[in-house]
Structure formats: C-alpha cells, structure tokens
Design a protein that fits this description.
Shape: elongated
Number of strands: 8
Distance between the termini: 47 Å
CATH architecture of one domain: Orthogonal Bundle
Number of helices: 18
CATH class of one domain: Mainly Alpha
Helix content: 40-55%
CATH topology of one domain: Arc Repressor Mutant, subunit A
Largest sheet: 5 strands, mixed
Structural class: alpha+beta
Length: 345
C-alpha cells in the first residue's frame, strides 16, 4: 500500500473546509479520521488521499480543487521537507534535499528511495520532471504538486528582479488525459499545458537554475535536517518486518495479548509468513518481543512516574514476579533497584 504524509490530506481537509466543505463529511467519504491526521508526519494511504480530492471537489463545487489546493497551500505548511527546501541556499540544492527526504512525503513502495524531482534536457530546453509513480498513477496528485511547485516558487521569488525577468514555467506537460476542468490549467500555470504526453514535467528558463534562494538562517536548515533525518530513520525502520511488529506490539502490550498469532493477524499475515519474514531479517519473534519489553521497561522506570508493578503491566506481564525475573535477566539487577536509584537521582 502506497502511503503519503498526513500533512497532505490534512492540508486538503483544511483548504476544502475553508471553501465550504463539511469536515466530518469529507473525512467520512475519504475513509479517514481526525486522529489519523492529527500529526502531519503520520502516514495515510494514497488511495484515501485521492478519495478526499474527489469528495472535496463534490462538496465544494470546485472541480479543479487539486489545482486550487496546490496554488493556495505551500509545501512548508504541510511538510518538514518543504521547510528544508525553503532553507536551501540555491535552486539547484532543492532537488537534492527533496529527493533525500522523499520517503517522508510519499512511499512508492518500490524498495528504493523515491525521486520526486529531477532535471532533464529535451528539445534543447531545460525541464523539471516529477517522475514519481504516485504522480503517474494518481493524476490529481500530479496536478496538485505541479501547481504547488509553481506557486511555491512564485511566492518565494516574488521580490526577486532576476526571477521576474524570466518566464516560469514556459510550458507544462501531464501524462493523463485532459479532465473536465482542463480550461483551468492555463489560468493556474499561466503557461501552455499539454496533456497525454510521455511525462509529468515543465519547461523552465535555464536562468532559473542559477538563482540563489532568499536567505534563511543556516542554523534553521541544520535543525530541520536533523529532525528530518530522525523521521527518515524511523520511517525506514518501520518498513522492516521487525519495525512493523514493534509498532503493533506497542499498541497491545498492555493488554497481555502479544502472542505471535495475534500480531500476525493484525499485520494481515499468517504465523508462518511472519516467522519467515523475521527469520530473513535475522531475528525471531521472541527476540523482538523480549528486546522491546526490555527497552520499554527501562524507559518507564527512568521516567520516575511509573511504579514497578505498573511497569510490569505496561510491558505485558500479568505477574510482577515474572517481570522482575525477566528484568534481572536483562540487566543483572532488579527493577526496584533501578527505580530506587532513579528516585535518588
């Protein structure tokens, strides 16, 4: 299942609501909940995001909602990757950072880093292409993100005489057939738009690539990059079978129902398939469960707000004595010793 950062459907939800759509109805028709969109770094299925576009167009009476959303809402408002791109020193740095953190935007499930933007030469001109499978398979996303790219850039360079002196973009290409609202494209892009071509791309003036972006504190860039690296690492880990097992266990450990059969069912796999997938990663289910319990127990006890018995319950032990034996095996000391030491500190 392809996924996209929750900031994108959340931004669409807010934008459509500002145009008169009922938020509850829009969420229901997209098959999403407010909780799923509570944090912009959560992941939701691309299919549900596309369903939200269709529902938003109907509920607002704006057929070209994809274009209007892309024009109105900047990437900086819905993704940390947008903030990083804004903080780049030059136009040429933007594709590097966008592709570096592409997985934080959309997961094409190709088993390799996604490419959201790349430069290309064709017919003697300079082009910016959006080669992502998500754009190819979902025209409304391609429309929205091409419009966002254009209007992000126009707003960023609104006070730049160098930018104002060039035509941006010169022409825009889309792979899909012209939709019913095709007349809106040239208004949004202020350029000729061609449908049913062999790529999603736009031609630009080569001078654009030489521009320096408006200055931003480089410390901000470093802080944003560090945060994005952390998110990227967590996302990549969660794509492994072990990561998915740990994420599932986190939500059910306290219930005591943490058997391999239960986790396999929640992951939509058979027990045998889960066993094989974990074996391919060099671990067993028991090792994953044991290590997660150890880590969580140490975190809870270090927090100094949870008792030993409460910690035992939270990591899935119904019997505090069994938890104490496991904890001593993990650390060489009892949980009460750790709890006492932390309290003294």
């Amino acid at each position: 299942m392809s996924t996209i950062a929750a900031g994108y459907p959340r931004g669409l939800l807010d934008f459509a609501a500002s145009k008169g759509a009922d938020r509850t109805a829009l969420l229901a028709r997209a098959g999403l909940s407010a909780e799923e969109l509570a944090h912009q770094d959560n992941r939701v299925s691309v299919a549900k995001y596309v369903a939200m576009f269709k529902a938003a167009a109907e509920l607002t009476g704006i057929p070209a909602i994809s274009l209007e959303y892309g024009k109105a809402v900047r990437m900086q408002e819905i993704s940390i990757v947008g903030l990083i791109c804004e903080a780049c020193e030059s136009v040429l740095d933007v594709p590097k950072q966008l592709n570096r953190y592409a997985s934080l935007v959309v997961d094409d499930e190709r088993g390799e880093p996604a490419t959201l933007m790349r430069g290309a030469g064709r017919d003697g001109g300079a082009w910016i292409q959006g080669p992502s499978d998500t754009f190819i398979q979902n025209p409304v996303i391609a429309e929205s993100e091409m419009a966002r790219l254009v209007w992000n850039t126009r707003e960023m360079f609104a006070n730049s005489p160098e930018f104002q002196a060039i035509k941006y973009p010169r022409v825009v290409h889309f792979m899909h057939k012209a939709p019913s609202y095709a007349a809106e494209f040239e208004r949004i892009f202020d350029a000729p738009v061609v449908f049913e071509t062999d790529w999603n791309a736009m031609q630009i003036d080569p001078a654009f690539l030489m521009l320096k972006q408006p200055p931003v504190n480089r410390y901000v860039f470093a802080v944003l990059s560090e945060r994005a690296d952390t998110l990227l690492k967590a996302f990549q880990e969660n794509r492994t079978t072990r990561g998915r097992v740990e994420s599932t266990l986190m939500s059910i450990l306290h219930t005591g129902e943490s058997s391999m059969d239960v986790v396999a069912e929640k992951l939509g796999q058979s027990r045998q398939t889960l066993y094989r997938n974990l074996k391919d990663e060099g671990v067993t289910y028991e090792q994953v469960l044991d290590e997660l319990r150890r880590k969580l127990a140490l975190d809870f006890l270090a927090g100094k707000k949870v008792s030993v018995n409460e910690t035992a319950y939270l990591v899935g032990f119904s019997d505090p004595a069994s938890f104490s034996r496991a904890f001593k095996r993990w650390t060489g000391v009892s949980p009460r010793e750790v709890r006492t030491a932390r309290a003294a500190e």
